[in-house]
Amino acid sequence: MIRSFLRDDDLTPAEQAEVLALAAKLKAQPYDHKPLAGPRTVAMVFDKPTLRTQASFAAGIAELGGNPMLVDGALAGIGKRESVADVARVLGRQASQVVWRTYAQSDLEEMATMSGVPVINALTDEFHPCQLLADLLTVQEHKGGLAGLTVAFLGDAACNMGNSWALAGVTAGMHVRFGCPEGYAPDAGVLEQASALGAATGGSVAVTTDPAAAVEGVDVVVTDTWVSMGKEDEAAARREVFSPYAVTEDLVAQARPDAVVMHCLPAYRGSEIAAAVIDGPQSVVWDEAENRRHAQKAVMAWLQAHVGQPGKTG
Ligand code: CP
Question: How many angstroms does the Cα of residue 22 sit away from the middle of ligand 1?
Fold first, then answer.
């Protein structure tokens, strides 16, 4: 069975730990591990804007000995010019893995079903699992571990990052608190799945509309843009709804004194996060951005090693 990484809970807790350990090893020795030697080609397809994801995948594929092949989503017209299934069949004949940033999770799932090669979610409307592996690697580096830590996600949690933090954080045994306005919590089904995962890992999810209660005593404070891709027309209204959840110095002061602050970027200083916070001593956002490369290298290496092996077992 071909393994893919389409959502955060595609990795069991043990597998997530294995991938994070591999990421740390690859970060320490970036040029020693070449599972894509040949070079094997990895197709990178982007239907939405990107800086970090494209740059970190391209650099990471090269470091693994592979060939990064950029496919322009607008030119390919996947689902418009030809079907997802036909694009998948074609890319699977050219590439050893496919990395795709697109809209619908169901399209990504079809790509995985039809391509015959591992497929990696580079962000969909529902999940951003590569970002979460980078975030967890960053927390692990700064805190020495993950299980038992508490993270507060502030602002718009009804998005891919909210969903992914719920699943990936609980998979790692963390307690994930969402501080968000009424109606902006992560997907209810995803929260249920995260709670169920917590029975095995000791992690948990909680939602509050009180931003101060969300950050009280936490180890990690996380936020994301209030105007996600595709929501640009609602920018003014969203700023009003989310302004009480801005990550300011006063709010961060409610967290543990050694708490770290994260943002997956791009960031808008003065909106979801104060300049003094993102550019301040508790911010680890640049480590987080760098760790995209190390985490994604680990995913690609891990998936390549599992081609032809039995699937997820628990
Ligand atoms: N955080 C993130 O995914 O960045 P890009 O949208 O620039 O790829």
Answer: 22
Ligand 1 pocket check for 199: Cβ under 6 Å = no
Question: What separation in angstroms does the CA of 307 have from each of 58, 116, 211, 235?
Answer: 21, 10, 44, 43
DSSP of 215-256: HTT-SEEEE--SS-TT-GGGHHHHHHHHGGG-B-HHHHTTS-
CA distance 42 to 22: 19
Q: What is the mean pLDDT of residues 258-283?
A: 98
Under a CB-based contact definition with an 8 Å cutoff, are residues 112 and 141 in contact? Answer: no
Name the catalytic one among 101, 177, 238, 294: 101
Kindly state the helix (H) or strand (E) to which residue 67 belongs, with its residue range: strand 67-72
Catalytic residue among 97, 131, 282, 304: 131
pLDDT tens, residue by residue, 143-184:
999 999 999 999 999 999 999 999 999 999 999 999 999 999
Strand spans (E) along 138-296: 150-154, 175-179, 204-208, 220-223, 260-263
Q: How far is CA 150 from CA 146, 170, 207, 214, 309, in A?
A: 9, 10, 13, 10, 35
142 is catalytic: no
CB atoms within 10 A of CB 69: 17
Look up residue 127 and give its two tokens: 């999940």
50 lines ligand 1 (CB under 6 A): yes
Percent of the chain with pLDDT over 90: 94
**How many secondary structure helices (H) and strands (E) does the chain include?**
13, 9
Cis peptide before 39 (omega within 30 of 0): yes
CB contact set of 25 (below 8 Å; sequence gap of 6+): 33
